[in-house]
C-alpha cells in the first residue's frame, strides 16, 4: 500500500493517496513559510524596518552577499507583504505539490538567481528585499514544468497559469517604478532553469529501449511503426496516457 508503481509507459506514478499526501505536505510547507515571513514582518515593523535595512541586498556590496538568502523573507511595508503573500502561497503550493524535496531545491536555486541578478546589475546604493523574486521563480517553474516532465495535468496547469498571470511579466522588464525588475527577472530565470534541472528523469520504458505502449504485464504492444496510428500512440505515451 502506498508503493510507487510504473504506468504502461514506464513512468513512475503515484497513487491518489500519495498525491493527496504530497499536496498536504505542500500546503503545510507554504503555510509555514508564510508564517515565518509574517513573524519577521512583525519584528521588522516593531524595529522600524531596521532588519530590512540591515539585510537588504545591495549591488556590488560584498558584505550583503549572504543576505541573498534572507532578503526574500523581508519586506519594506505592510502593503509590500500583503501584495506578495497571496501569489507566494498559490504559486508556491503549485510548485511544491509534486514533491517537497524538489521544491526546496528549487527555492534555493530561485533565491540565488534572483539575489545575484540584483547584486550584479542593480544600480548602486539601492537595497532590495521581498518575496517577489520567489513568486516569479515559482510562476516560471509552474508554467513550463509539465513540458519538461511530459505530464499532461501539469502542462494544462501551466497553460492556465501562464494565460491568467501573463501580466506579471510586465514587471520583469525595465520601466516599472518602485520595484526591482531585476529580482523578478532573476527569479523567473531561476524558475525556468529549475524546471529543467529538476525534471523527471525516470526512464520512459523499463529497459530504456522501447517507448511504445505497454500492456498491464509490462510487455510492449506490437504496433507497426508505419501504421497510421503509430504517431498517435507515441504522443499519447509521451503524455502518460497509455
TrEMBL record:
<keyword id="KW-0378">Hydrolase</keyword>
<keyword id="KW-0645">Protease</keyword>
<dbReference type="Pfam" id="PF01694">
    <property type="entry name" value="Rhomboid"/>
</dbReference>
<feature type="domain" description="Peptidase S54 rhomboid">
    <location>
        <begin position="68"/>
        <end position="199"/>
    </location>
</feature>
<feature type="transmembrane region" description="Helical">
    <location>
        <begin position="103"/>
        <end position="121"/>
    </location>
</feature>
<keyword id="KW-0812">Transmembrane</keyword>
<keyword id="KW-1133">Transmembrane helix</keyword>
<keyword id="KW-0472">Membrane</keyword>
<protein>
    <submittedName>
        <fullName>Rhomboid family intramembrane serine protease</fullName>
    </submittedName>
</protein>
<feature type="transmembrane region" description="Helical">
    <location>
        <begin position="179"/>
        <end position="198"/>
    </location>
</feature>
<dbReference type="InterPro" id="IPR022764">
    <property type="entry name" value="Peptidase_S54_rhomboid_dom"/>
</dbReference>
<dbReference type="GO" id="GO:0006508">
    <property type="term" value="P:proteolysis"/>
</dbReference>
<dbReference type="GO" id="GO:0004252">
    <property type="term" value="F:serine-type endopeptidase activity"/>
</dbReference>
<feature type="transmembrane region" description="Helical">
    <location>
        <begin position="127"/>
        <end position="148"/>
    </location>
</feature>
<feature type="transmembrane region" description="Helical">
    <location>
        <begin position="155"/>
        <end position="173"/>
    </location>
</feature>
<feature type="transmembrane region" description="Helical">
    <location>
        <begin position="26"/>
        <end position="46"/>
    </location>
</feature>
<dbReference type="GO" id="GO:0016020">
    <property type="term" value="C:membrane"/>
</dbReference>
<dbReference type="InterPro" id="IPR035952">
    <property type="entry name" value="Rhomboid-like_sf"/>
</dbReference>
Amino acid at each position: 500500500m502506498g508503493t510507487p508503481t510504473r504506468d504502461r509507459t514506464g513512468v513512475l506514478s503515484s497513487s491518489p493517496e500519495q498525491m493527496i499526501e504530497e499536496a498536504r505536505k505542500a500546503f503545510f510547507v507554504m503555510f509555514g513559510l508564510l508564517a515565518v515571513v509574517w513573524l519577521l514582518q512583525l519584528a521588522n515593523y516593531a524595529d522600524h524596518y531596521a532588519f530590512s535595512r540591515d539585510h537588504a541586498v545591495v549591488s556590488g556590496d560584498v558584505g550583503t552577499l549572504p543576505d541573498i538568502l534572507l532578503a526574500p523573507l523581508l519586506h519594506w511595508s505592510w502593503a509590500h507583504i500583503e501584495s506578495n503573500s497571496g501569489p507566494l502561497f498559490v504559486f508556491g503550493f503549485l510548485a511544491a505539490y509534486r514533491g517537497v524535496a524538489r521544491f526546496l531545491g528549487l527555492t534555493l536555486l530561485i533565491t540565488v538567481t534572483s539575489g545575484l541578478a540584483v547584486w550584479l546589475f542593480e544600480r548602486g546604493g539601492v537595497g532590495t528585499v521581498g518575496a517577489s523574486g520567489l513568486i516569479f521563480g515559482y510562476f516560471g517553474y509552474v508554467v513550463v514544468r509539465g513540458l519538461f516532465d511530459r505530464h499532461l495535468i501539469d502542462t494544462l496547469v501551466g497553460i492556465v497559469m501562464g494565460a491568467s498571470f501573463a501580466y506579471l511579466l510586465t514587471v520583469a522588464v525595465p520601466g516599472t517604478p518602485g520595484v526591482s525588475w531585476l529580482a523578478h527577472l532573476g527569479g523567473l530565470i531561476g524558475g525556468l532553469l529549475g524546471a529543467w534541472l529538476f525534471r523527471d528523469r525516470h526512464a520512459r520504458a523499463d529497459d530504456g529501449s522501447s517507448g511504445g505502449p505497454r500492456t498491464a504485464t509490462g510487455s510492449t504492444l506490437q504496433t507497426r511503426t508505419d501504421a497510421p496510428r503509430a504517431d498517435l500512440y507515441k504522443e499519447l505515451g509521451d503524455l502518460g496516457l497509455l
